[in-house]
Amino acid sequence: MNDRRQDYPRPNARLHLNVFQPFGPIYDWSRTPRLRDYYEPAAYLALVQEAERGLFSAVFLGESLRLREHLGALNDIAVTGRPDALALFAHLAAGTSRIGLVATLNTTYTDPVDLARRIATVDLLSRGRAGWNVVTTDNGWTGENFRRGGFLDRHNRYRYAEEHVAAVQAIWDGFGADAIAADRDAASWLRPDALTLVDRAGEHLSARVLPQVPPSPQGQAVYFQAGDSDEGRDFAARRAEGIFTHRIEFDDAVAFTADIRRRARAYGRPGDDILVIPGASIVLGATDAEAQEKARHLRERLLTDRRIRQIVEEVWQEDLGHVDLDGPLPEHAPAADRQSRTHGIVHTGHEPSAKIREWRAIAEARGYSIRQLVDHLTRARAFVGTPGAVADELVHFVRSDAFDGLNVTPDAFPDGLGDVVDLLVPELQERGAYPREYPGTTLRENLGLPETVGHRVPALAELEAEAVPV
Fold first, then answer.
1. For residues 205 and 216, is the Cβ–Cβ distance under 8 A?
2. Rounded to an integer, what distance in angstroms lies between the CA atom of residue 362 and that of residue 246?
3. How far is the C-alpha of 233 from the C-alpha of 330, rounded, in Å?
4. How far apart are CA 97 and CA 7, in angstroms?
5. Virtual CA dihedral for 221, 223, 224, 225, nearest 10 degrees?
6. Mean pLDDT score of the chain, rounded to an integer?
7. Residues ≥6 apart with Cβ < 8 Å to 462
8. What is the pTM of this model?
């Protein structure tokens, strides 16, 4: 590789790799020897141990609080259930020693007192390797599981999230690092006045509690966030230490990262203390042609006729079994003007007609059949090529400040990381863009993050009445 370090804004930047385990049909679930493995802790442990062998910074699990449905029935091609992340991470912590454990946990449908204790427990069990991907939802269909419905609009759900995170932060802060007596000869197991009573009453929630779990070696779990709206980006700029995104095309990624850093600086942060980590798949081959063929084969296995039909049916909201997938889109209007549930494969913004107009324009401009259109619409960004070529591309991205790392989606479960670990990681190390050993023992150390942002920028402890101008 031609060394162009002097040309880059971050000439010595290193890449972080996480393993991201989403829900099917993103990967080839039919390759899994036993479908029950999607619920087996041993299968998750095998995947995470492979990632740790490759010095991955963390494992990041997506979450689904309700099994996905299709046209009112259980979706039989998308595996959308899994064990509770924090309980699973307690198991994974015992079988690993360095890799971080990032759980997606919803503020809309959890209690901050309970959640603070559970996250802190996993952080303690793992000796400082826990992370929290803070998410919200205004999806009333999911809310039915909690007998709440969609009771928060998009704006209020982030205000609620601010209160929730602030309460969790206060609970974690309330148990000092030196609160427990150093030896058994002390007069009390707890230093006098060591715990701080958390007594909060906000617009959406209140809490009055004494913390129960001491801090871990990293102090507190690392905050992540995955929203892409203006509200989500502002929330990340105030609270997050890592942000998950889908922005993976180079120019778009550079612009997105610059925007996040600008917003963070507007809230009094350095701007480079928040890691931007998009998701992508990686397909490697001995030659570029071999890698492209592997990617094509995987794509064909994933984009089955059943999946293509489901994607179109989600928008038309009716059974389209009679429609020829190699022909044009259906000519008739959708079954309803509004989409009443947002649990399908395609998010229409509740207006199927607008989505159909968008699809028709693309199909007519490019002469696409339904099959070709769906292939175009669902083609996820992937880094495809020889290990050396992919390493060069990733180094270019990270040193150009397009992102700080990747959430790598394995192409199978639980054995889909072998090529990345055995072929790509050595190439990245050879270029000085990837560690040869873990920098530390905690997630915060391995990500190169300072003390939690809530401590470094005290003004962030509470949501301001008005957003900081950016």
1. no
2. 21
3. 37
4. 37
5. 140
6. 88
7. 162, 166
8. 0.91
Residue for token pair 């038309």: 316
The C-alpha atoms of residue 120 and residue 130 are separated, in whole angstroms, by 8
| Amino acid at the residue 249 | E
pLDDT one-digit tens code per residue, 268-309: 899 899 999 999 999 999 999 999 999 999 888 888 898 899
Average pLDDT of 22-38?
66
Q: Which domains does the chain have, with CATH numbers?
A: 5-285+386-461 (3.20.20.30), 290-378 (no CATH)
Residue that is written with structure tokens 């083609």 in the block: 379
Which two structure tokens, joined as six digits, stand for 334?
């959708």
**Torsion angle (degrees, nearest 10) of CA 76, 78, 82, 86:** -150
> If DSSP codes are grouped into helix, strand and coil, which group holds residue 322?
coil
Question: CA–CA separation, 470 vs 6, rounded Å?
Answer: 31
Distances in Å between the Cα of 228 and the Cα atoms of 11, 246, 274, 278 are 28, 9, 15, 12
Q: How far apart are CA 2 and CA 388, in angstroms?
A: 12
Lowest mean pLDDT among 62-76, 141-155, 189-203: 141-155
Contact residues for 158 (Cβ-Cβ < 8 A; gap 6+): 136, 227, 231, 232, 234, 235
What per-residue string of b and e applies to 62-76 under the rule 16 or more CB within 10 Å gives b?
bbbbeebebeeeebe
User: Is the confidence at residue 419, as pLDDT, over 50?
Assistant: yes
